[in-house]
Design goal:
The protein has about 90 residues and is mostly beta strands. It has no helices and five strands.
């Protein structure tokens, strides 16, 4: 069963490529499916990248986020560095 790591497990400088003094928090998880979230994940080159959108899936194998264009992005759960819920997107301007 998935369990959020403690802040110590996701804080720099323990994370390769993370800036010194940066603290990553993992406050979103499987219970947040359907909510708007931002997920920071490790990219294949070791850099970090963010996904913003609706959380579609979160389990032991993968996290899936649908962006505002309707594209679903799947990330291995082990590559998730931080995640949190965010407010709904503001209305579009006309």
């Amino acid at each position: 069963m998935w369990q959020a790591p403690s802040l110590a497990h996701v804080s720099a400088p323990d994370q390769p490529g993370a800036a010194v003094g940066v603290r990553y928090a993992l406050t979103a998880g499987p219970a947040d499916v359907g909510a708007r979230v931002v997920v920071r994940r490790r990219l294949p080159d070791g850099a970090l990248g963010d996904l913003l959108g609706e959380l579609l899936r979160w389990d032991d194998q993968a996290v899936e986020v649908r962006d505002r264009h309707g594209v679903a992005h799947t990330v291995a759960t082990v590559d998730v560095v931080a995640a949190k819920r965010v407010p709904p997107a503001p209305p579009r301007r006309r």
